């Protein structure tokens, strides 16, 4: 009578079969190359301990520089996103509306006043208009986009009360001077700019 194989015998037979060449997984070309490269590097480190120490220092410095750069990029992107989200509520600006003028509405207003003092009514009104659009964007009464027309903004602020009325008046003056090359009294422009500044300052608090 044939005796059944014991569990230990089964394990031994299985191990012997699996160790046969046809059951061994051959390393890929990439694995062989990587293994050889690693061996060469380790051999070089052993043969050149002083240079290996210098190389370690250089690699550490490079790693620290890369991590610092990544941290800088992430921080800059977070600042940009935070500025875009807070807008003129924090005394800043809707970046798209004022980015080519000034970093904040207050500095943009100062530039508009300088232009008005210099007699450059067109630039003063253009900046004032952008400051107002920036402020209304921050108040969520409109959404500033470069492709929009003044009519688009007026439609968005049709029921915006006093801010909407200010936009109507400033847009009328803006188009009269900039598009139609008409005239506007300096005092009227100064009053409009003062109202824009007052609205922007109130929205930032």
Helical fraction equals over 70%
Oligomer: single chain
Radius of gyration: 36 Å
Q: Let me know the largest β-sheet.
A: none
Coarse shape: elongated
Mean pLDDT: 79
Global structural class: mainly alpha
Compressed to H and E, one letter per element, the order equals: HHHHHHHHH
Number of strands: 0
**Cα end-to-end separation:** 98 Å
**Poorly predicted sequence stretches spanning 5 or more consecutive residues:** 83-94
Counting DSSP H or I runs of 4 or more residues, the number of helices is 9
Give a nutshell description of this structure.
The protein is mostly helical. It contains 9 helices and no strands. The longest helix has 38 residues, at 49-86.
Structure commentary:
This protein is mainly α. It is built from 9 helices and no strands. It has helices spanning 7-18, 29-47, 49-86, 95-98, 105-117, 121-138, 150-156, 162-179, 186-203. Helix 5 (105-117) runs antiparallel to helix 9 and helix 6 (121-138) runs antiparallel to helix 8.
């Amino acid at each position: 009578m044939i005796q059944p194989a014991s569990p230990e015998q089964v394990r031994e037979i299985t191990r012997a079969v699996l160790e046969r060449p046809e059951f061994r997984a051959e390393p890929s070309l990439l694995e062989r190359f990587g293994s050889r490269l690693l061996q060469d590097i380790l051999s070089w480190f052993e043969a050149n301990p002083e240079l290996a120490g210098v190389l370690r220092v250089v690699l550490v410095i490079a790693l620290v520089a890369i991590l610092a750069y990544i941290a800088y990029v992430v921080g800059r992107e977070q600042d940009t996103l935070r500025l875009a989200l807070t807008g003129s509520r924090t005394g800043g600006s809707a970046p798209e509306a004022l980015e080519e003028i000034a970093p904040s509405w207050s500095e943009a207003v100062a530039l508009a006043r300088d232009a008005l003092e210099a007699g450059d009514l067109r630039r003063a009104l253009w900046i004032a208009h952008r400051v107002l659009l920036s402020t209304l964007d921050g108040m969520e009464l409109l959404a500033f986009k470069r492709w929009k027309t003044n009519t688009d903004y007026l439609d968005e602020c049709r029921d915006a009360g006093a801010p909407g009325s200010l936009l109507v008046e400033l847009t009328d003056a803006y188009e009269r001077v900039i598009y139609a090359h008409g005239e506007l009294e300096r005092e009227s422009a100064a009053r409009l700019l003062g109202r824009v500044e007052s609205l922007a300052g109130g929205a930032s608090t």
